[in-house]
Amino acid sequence: MSETSPDETRPAIQTWWAEAMIDELVRCGLRNCCISPGSRSTPLVAAADAHDDLQTLSIIDERSSAFYALGLARATDRPVVLICTSGTAAANWMPTVCEADRAGVPLVLLTADRPPRLRDTGASQSMDQLKLFGDRVRWFHKCERPEPREDAFRYLRSTIDIAWQEALPPLPDPSI
């Protein structure tokens, strides 16, 4: 992953941001990622799938993907990343998040979200994702909008480091 920023086009910035997120997670020790692909999460999915040091599994149904990740995290005793698109897709993770919370199973949850201008616009699958899982996750953070600046890049890597650390023992739990 290059630490140079892309040009000013939004798709390139989102791709760069997603690659930096996945690269930092792998640097932290991530080995497995369960993906439920959707249009808004495409940059994250592509970055995860392209990373040579990461095993990805695509399971379209979010609930099934989350329970698979839970089992994998239990079996390996390592955090597993879940990726999905925005809105109700992430809500399908709730049973797994509750179980991971109670059982102390480490998960890192990455969801896409609608841009602010498209929130509360009446789309059938849109919903407020802030604090979606309440106190069932140890740590929650809504990332800033991707920007092609070095300080934004450092912020992103630092944020990913915190999410990873929060998912680790002694009190493993989901983080988002």
Describe this structure in words.
The protein is of the alpha/beta class and 176 residues long. It has a single domain (16-110, 136-175), classed as Rossmann fold, CATH 3.40.50.970. Helix content is 43%, strand content 12%. The protein has 6 helices and 5 strands; from the N terminus they run H-E-H-E-H-E-H-H-E-H-E. It has helices spanning 10-28, 42-50, 62-76, 88-91, 94-103, 150-167, and strands at residues 32-36, 55-58, 80-84, 107-111, 174-175. It has a 5-stranded parallel β-sheet, with helices on both faces. The two termini are 23 Å apart. Mean pLDDT is 85; it is low at 1-6.
* Rg from Cα: 15 Å
The quaternary structure here is: single chain
Mean pLDDT: 85
> What is the CATH topology?
Rossmann fold
Provide the low-confidence segments as ranges: 1-6
Q: What is the SS-derived class? A: alpha/beta
Shape-level CATH architecture: 3-Layer(aba) Sandwich
Strand content: 5-15%
Number of self-contained structural domains: 1
| Shape assignment | globular
CA-to-CA gap between the ends?
Answer: 23 Å
CATH class: Alpha Beta
Q: Output the CATH homologous superfamily.
A: Thiamin diphosphate (ThDP)-binding fold, Pyr/PP domains
